What does this fold into?
Amino acid sequence: MYAETDFLLALIKDEDWLGDTAEAVYRDHRDELWTSQFTLIELLFVAYREDRDTERVVTNAANLVEVRGDLDTVVAAATYVEDHGFAPFDALHLVESDGDTIVSSDRTYEDFAPRLDLKAENEE
It folds into this structure.
């Protein structure tokens, strides 16, 4: 059974209107539940928007159900969000770039990866 974002949020949040139901479903179907990296990416965005600990939210969700897909990238991105103030997509781009030069006008990457600055290129 595929666990979607609202189900995992209901399990993770201290108070959620679906919390009791989600806990009952989790108890009854724990061994059948799985999710994808995309659910974790959505959780990363929700946690960021709600000013929650992004790394903790993503890690907790990953500990609840099997994750199919690239878990490590999402956890690493959540760490950049939490520890360095990255926005979620910028963090995902940084992790996915795997040290390669990032072509962007965004200065966010300055201290973390080589960057080809579009603004500077535009001035030439």
Q: What stands out?
A: The mean pLDDT is 94.
